[in-house]
User: Fold this.
Amino acid sequence: MVELAELSRVLRVGVAAGLVLMVVGLVAGSNVLTTMGVLTLILTPAAGLVYAALILAGEKDGKLYAAAALLDLALILGTLLYLAVIR
Amino acid sequence: MDPLSSLTILAAAMFAGFMGALLGIGGGSIMVPVFTVTLGINVKVAVATSLTALIATSAISSSVYLRKRLVNLRLAVVLEGATVLGSVTGASIAAAIPDWAVETLFGIVLFYAFTVMVLRTLRPPRVKEAGGGRFSYYDDALRRVVSYDYRNLPIATALSFLAGIVSGMLGIGGGTVKVPILDLVAGLPMKAAVATSSYMIGITASGGSLVYFFKGLIDPHIVALAVAGIIAGSRLGAAVMTKLKSRVLRVIFSVFLAYYAARMIMRGAAGWWS
Assistant:
């Protein structure tokens, strides 16, 4: 069963990874690394939503809420897909 | 970007994080006007930077709140559907309208934040006595378990959509918009409202930031400096928070808000006129 502490860890690790990529990109003068860092940061809450859905799915009467979390995730990834691929 | 500009952006972001931590607000209402009025950065780039930096501050503060079980995860995921839609809509609108319109709207929202700040200074919010309910958390200050339930879900959802639009358009969120909805409309105790808002704003900002990213309004260098600065500033702010008088800070910050609100509206008016 996924715990709240794991969601908390995912958020912190996502931000740290994004920040490290951005700073390394800045120092190395690499736009690719810096942009990857920005995208990692932007998509960290989406990774958090996966964990939120798993937490809620494991709770009593939590299935509907887990579906709501997945819907939020679908909205973010749908926006990404629309802007990056379709448009 | 030259080293001096980089240092100035870093310092401005640190200031936003520092003040945000001291006053219990996100850094957006400080970062955007300072970046725009003082540093001369384009308002849409400033908004996009602020929104992306909010993801970092939200993740860091909500990770603490999640461990303390203060975040109402169920309510957050239900309201976020509307809020993410609002944020994407708001960011799309902001990217399409002229700069002067964004500046004017930002100035108006800053005046609203100024009014709220003055009212809170004159009349601090009362501690809500929560009744029995499905949700609970342990309150360190009260030294007891507080139980509560949420109410008015349809109204809170509709208002969350509007809050998402404001966040997406102006790069601000938590303290000024979401907390009042969760506290006053959904009936959450203040601590749960602040924690839930803190978790929600990161998800909201994610949707809006994607729009700005693909519109080419996110400058990775500015974002990197802003994120590093706001994290450092908020840690510093949290460390000295207990040593400063919040009433004095609120008065100083009210003057800051009024000044930048007027400057943003004047910039907007000048842009419209020319």
Remarks:
- The mean pLDDT of chain B is 86.
- The longest strand of chain B covers residues 135-139.
